[in-house]
Structure formats: structure tokens, C-alpha cells
Structure prediction request, 358 residues.
Amino acid sequence: MRAVALLGPYARDQHLRRFELPSVNIFSGNELDPTDTPDAVLIFGGDGTIHRHLGVLSSKQVPTLIVPIGSANDFAQSIGLPDVPQSQSAWRRFCATGDNIRSIDLGTIQPLDEASAHETSASSRESGDPTAKTAIADDESDPWRNESLETLHFVPDGPRRDLPKMGGRIMQSQMRRLSAAERAVSRTTFFCCIAGTGLDAAVNRRTLQQSHWLRGHGGYVVALVQTLGSFMPPRIRVEVESEGSWTTRIAENGFLIAAGNGPQYGHGMRLTRRARMDDGLLDVCFVRTLSKLRLLRLFRVVYRGAHIGMKEVEYLQASRLRISTDRPMEIFADGEYVCQTPVEVGVRPNGLRVIVGG
Prediction:
């Protein structure tokens, strides 16, 4: 077996040595070569390190083991690997039997502007959900070499050669769809835990300036207190897609809006605690405007997920939504900056294959 170890900023040689086994060759680095498809990938790091590799891992569908040694390890906890010994046990089982692989969803984020929003809507009417049907394998080299446009029909799962010859107008339509698919892939950012904007994003921005130790020992709460005094809740608009049409579900001032692929982030804050990673849906949590003192009390119960059902909180599920704000706001996902609003957030079903414990 040949495996690649992707090392986060806090990975050390002793971490890697604990996963060396007979007949397993582990090669370490900071990136996965786009031309390489190993038998397995080990990620030594936290949520941020995982986040940076999701695009290539989703494309290649390589079984991936998480070794939680980052400043935030919520994704590893969500899939049942809360510590390094648990990851070691899962790795040994995988190397022995290969029967502990689970396919989970990933969240997707695409930035929107007026032109791209119109284009995305038109594309969705013509060909369905662009986030779910536009995967293009990175390891295919000139897949249609020596073929003619007249002989190929570009469909979501690859070229078709068994269909009648296309006319010129159909060819142009197919090429537009292929071009739109390529643009969608290049603009998509994947996330594994929770993405959102508002107060949470502002707090995430401040935590990036903290030391590794502080981030792992209550840094989020410190940053929250520092940020809350000057934060002005934006007006947030959330549109949800259903059967090809968009419906406005939220249009009011609020402290934050978050879409969860998994139940928790920020060292155990269960903001979207009902989220499942294999149901093809995002759990959406919106916190309305309320007094800042009450907001601090609300954050205390978020660690238990007890905020769901409170009058200040709206909670819903969607497979695809658009988020816009009255002023540009930063979007963070898995604790990492992605882009600014407006955005479209969706789901890539079975986007990642993870190695899990017993």
C-alpha cells in the first residue's frame, strides 16, 4: 500500500512515525500531486488543514484518514476520531481489512454577483444543480483526444459516443454547458464543517491573529468578547431553492447565518447540532437581532445545541441556498476565509471518503 501524508503546520516526525506499518509506504508533503492517486491519504492537522485539501480529495475520492492535531478538530470529532489513538486504531483496521470507509457530503460555496447569479439560475433551469453535476476529474489527460465535436455529447458523467450526430445549434448548446461546468468547478470552495457570515465571521477573522495555544484554549470566546462591542448586525437575506425555484426564507437583521454540513465547529460549538453528513442537506441556523448580553448567554448554550427552538433562532434545512447582506460581509468556512457575500451554498453528496473507527 502506498499512502500520502499531508502535514499541517503543527505536524512533527513523531506523529507520522506512529502510523508506519509493515508493507505500507508513507510519503509526506504539504500538497497532493494532482497527477497522483495513492491508496490512501492521511491528514495531520485540524479543520483548517483539512479544508485546504478538500477540492482535490473530492475529485480523486481517495480514502482519507484524519489525525486530529490542529488547533480546532471539530471535523475529526464529528466522524468519531476525537484523538490520535483513535485515528491509529482506524488506520490499522483500514490497512488490515479496508472495510471502514464512509462516504460523506461536503458543503460547497460559490461567490455570486449579478451576472453570475443570473447565469447560475439559467444553468439550473437547463441542467439541474450545477454543484452536484459538474465534477471534472483532475487526472484525465486529454480525455477526448482524436474525437470530433460531432461525435461527442457532453453529459454529466462524461462524453457519449453512441448518440446521433449533433447539429450545429445543439453543439453550441453543449459547449455552453461544458464551459459553464468548468467555470462552476473553478469557483467552488468545499467545506466539511460549517460556513457562515456575520458576527461569527468577524470573530473568526480575529482568532486568526491569535497564537496556536490561545486558539486551542478558549480563543474563540476571547475573540467574541473583543468583537461584540462594535459589531452592527447586517440585514441578511436567505433564499432557498426547491424544485428549480427560489423562495425567500429570511430577510431581516441578524447577528449571524451559518450553514452546517456537520454538527459543530469552534471547539465543540454545536450550532447546527442536527446536521448529518450523509443526508444531502445543509442545516441552516440564523440568529436574529437581540441584546448583546442575551447573545453572550446564547453562546453558552450553543455548546449543548440547546439554542434550537429559541425565538431568537431560526433553524431550517436546504440543499441549496443563497446568502446576501446589505453590505459585503466575509464568508468563513471551517475557520478559513473564503470570499464575501453574496454567495450560493450547496451540497456535494458523497463528496469525501473518510476512514473511520470501529
Remarks:
- The CA atoms of residues 122 and 137 lie 24 Å apart.
- The longest strand covers residues 245-260.
- The chain has two domains: 2-105, 190-350.
- The chain has a mean pLDDT of 84.
